[in-house]
Amino acid sequence: MKGTRTEAVITALLVATLASASGGTFAQAYPTKPVRILVGFAPGGGTDIMARAVAAKMTDSMKQQFIVENRPGANANLAAKLAAEAPADGYTILFMSVAHIMSKPVYKNLGYDIERDLTPLTVVSEVSNVLAAHPSLPAKTVKDVIALAKAKPGELTYATAGVGSPEHFAGEMLKMMTRTNLLMVPYKGGGPIAIDLVAGHVMTSFSTMPPIIPHVRAGRVRAVAVTKDKRAAVLPDVPTIAETVPGYAMSTWYGAVAPAKTPREIVVRLNQEMLKALALPEVKERLASLGADIVASSPEQTAAFFKTELAKYTKVAQAANIRAD
Known about the structure:
Layout: H1 2-29, E1 35-39, H2 46-62, E2 66-70, H3 77-85, E3 92-97, H4 98-106, H5 114-117, E4 118-133, H6 142-151, E5 157-160, H7 166-178, E6 183-186, H8 190-199, E7 204-208, H9 209-217, E8 222-226, E9 251-259, H10 264-278, H11 281-289, E10 293-294, H12 299-320
Parallel strand pairs: 1-2, 1-3, 5-6, 5-7
Antiparallel strand pairs: 3-9, 4-7, 4-8, 4-9, 4-10
């Protein structure tokens, strides 16, 4: 009997050792095939730009293709739902933005829960949004925009990436705080917004910096103000909205998540590789030129940040009655 118990203990130890070894081998071997990075917006927007900057470096460092796949729709929630339903094997990543946090209090039936169905990897970066205007608009300051909106209620258009998007929240916050009425025009991402703003099909936007900065520099659109509570280093001469509307503050951030129950060793590996990419001088320079401040958080820090942001924007959505269905 004693010998049988001893043999059982030895067998159990061998099984545990082999399981541990196989897990380690799996982590070291990963990835063994291409990894898709879902982006819920059209090409050219902030999330797309961030995803491609990181994906290129991860392809180099991990010796496998990290392929960005644009799946716009439902204010980026189509891509999020696809990621939530994907196998939890490390071969599907969602590059997200604050828009996904904002969607939870706005939509009744998303088809997924960002806290339950997705695993945080990192917050990549944070940028200010820009209150931008077509050059033909007779409004060069925030005061001018407010005056124009009050003179023509519901006629001054502003572009967004959809109901509950960061651009929408930025516009609704300005409307609430100035008692004005702006007309929201939905698009499928920052790229299409920039194109139509340049063409004059929409008069203003609260665009994120990455897609709009090149057009500001080229003089194709006018940067009226930035939405953060401090001026942006990349646009030092552009005032904040808060300089005219005290207390106004809003920013957009970008992050990455994987399906829930993705193995811990894969989560850690992806986080490490993303942080490694974000530390590269060329990536830092590229993102800084677009007004982005690199964050590079751990999975645990990212999860805590998500909870804080969700509480904040739930309050805004309720106060402004932002609902999509």
